[in-house]
Design brief:
The chain has eight helices and 15 strands. It is α/β, with parallel strands linked by helices. It folds into two domains: about 5-95, Translation factors (Elongation Factor Tu (Ef-tu), domain 3, Beta Barrel); about 110-265, Nucleotide-binding domain of ferredoxin-NADP reductase (FNR) module (Rossmann fold), CATH 3.40.50. Strands 10-9-8-7-11-12-15 form a seven-stranded mixed β-sheet, sandwiched between helices. The protein has a six-stranded antiparallel β-sheet with strand order 4-3-6-1-2-5, covered by helices on one side. It has a two-stranded antiparallel ribbon with strand order 13-14. It is globular. It binds flavin-adenine dinucleotide and FE2/S2 (inorganic) cluster (FES). Flavin-adenine dinucleotide binds near residues 57, 78 and 117. FE2/S2 (inorganic) cluster binds near residues 233, 234 and 249. This is Oxidoreductase. Its cofactor is FAD; [2Fe-2S] cluster. InterPro entries: Cbr1-like_FAD-bd_dom, Cyt_c3_hydrogenase_gsu, Dihydroorotate_DH_Fe-S-bd, FAD-bd_FR_type, FNR_nucleotide-bd, OxRdtase_FAD/NAD-bd, PyrK_electron_transfer, Riboflavin_synthase-like_b-brl. It holds the Pfam family FAD_binding_6.
Length: about 280
């Protein structure tokens, strides 16, 4: 039987981290082995007593004390109420859920493309690459509407020391790069074609990035997206998170691009994927 009872989660600290976004430090009381085995790209359900429950991704994963961080953008009732919570508040936690990013750091260059808050689910992957002896193997293109809309300020400052990290803006100030992440793909491909793309952001950006990478020779089974859908149970019971015949809470939120197209009943205008390599 599925146990959907939230466990106790302590709010340690929160600070502003981008327009309408805050960075939360949290601690799971008595973390379980499954919490410590959480993977970058997985998500958890946060309960605010008397308000409700919502899914969020881990920015940093739970450590042995159960401490982890999350980036939350103000959207509506629950997120606003969460912003109003003081340090020391006791919240609820369920997780980890879903499938994280495939971690194929086997000497192959990776490309991360993120838009807005979509940088948060990719933080674990970037952090891992920046700490390992292969940081140059991962390149990031991060797009935001303007610099005030960027998130993960402290993390970006650190990553920029070790990784090729392109920042681009819809409304660029003088000296900043202008345009969507797509405009900067050629620069990354010219430096060495990536073996895989991990992408998170608004769905149109993810689809456009995937297609642009296909056009540049990357195969559909080397492209991964992370999807957001309305979620209630996160246990594959309520059906709120359907993507075709798939439950995003169970099978996602990360999907290989060829599988994503298949679930949508579409095919890529660019190419068909050869047999799967990674799952
Ligand atoms: C797997 C997953 C991971 C997520 N990770 C994060 C994260 O790390 N940080 C973060 O800030 N948010 C994340 N979200 C989104 C977050 O769950 C919603 O913003 C939150 O549920 C909004 O709750 P609310 O009560 O404040 O707003 P509501 O009043 O429920 O909604 C406000 C507005 O946001 C829209 N909305 C709410 N939830 C979603 C959704 N899932 N997809 C699309 N639109 C939605 C509503 O339609 C409405 O227009 C994630 C969602 C999923 C499915
Ligand atoms: S959220 Fe209920 S089935 Fe996915």
């Amino acid at each position: 039987m599925i146990d959907s009872t939230p466990r106790r989660l302590h709010l340690l600290e929160q600070y502003e981290d981008g327009e309408d976004s805050r960075h939360f430090s949290l601690r799971i009381e008595q973390p379980a082995a499954s919490d410590l085995a959480a993977k970058a790209g997985q998500f958890f359900m946060l309960t605010l007593p008397g308000v409700g429950e919502a899914p969020f991704t881990y920015v940093s994963l739970p450590d042995a004390q159960g401490c982890f961080t999350a980036l939350v953008r103000r959207a509506g009732r629950l997120t606003q109420a969460l912003f109003d919570q003081p340090a020391g508040s006791v919240l609820g936690y369920r997780g980890p859920f879903g499938h994280g990013w495939p971690l194929f750091f086997n000497a192959q260059p990776l490309l991360v493309v993120a838009g807005g808050c979509g940088l948060a689910p990719l933080a674990g992957v970037i952090e891992q690459a920046s700490r390992q002896a292969m940081p140059a193997r991962l390149s990031v293109i991060y797009g935001a509407r303007h610099s005030g809309a960027q998130v993960l300020g402290r993390e970006r400052a650190r990553w920029q020391q070790t990784l090729p990290f392109i920042e681009t803006f819809d409304q660029a100030a003088p000296g900043q790069r202008q345009g969507t992440p797509l405009l900067h793909l050629d620069e990354v491909f010219a430096a060495g074609p990536p073996a895989a793309l991990l992408c998170c952001g608004p769905e149109p950006l993810m689809r456009a990035s995937a297609e642009a990478c296909l056009q540049r020779g990357l195969r559909a089974d080397r492209i991964w997206l992370s999807l957001e859908r309305r979620m209630h149970c996160a246990d594959g019971l309520c059906g709120h998170c359907y993507l075709g015949s798939s439950y995003v809470c169970q099978d996602g939120p990360t999907y290989r691009y060829d599988r994503y197209l298949q679930l949508l009943g579409r095919s890529s205008p660019i190419s068909q994927a050869p047999p799967a390599l990674f799952c």
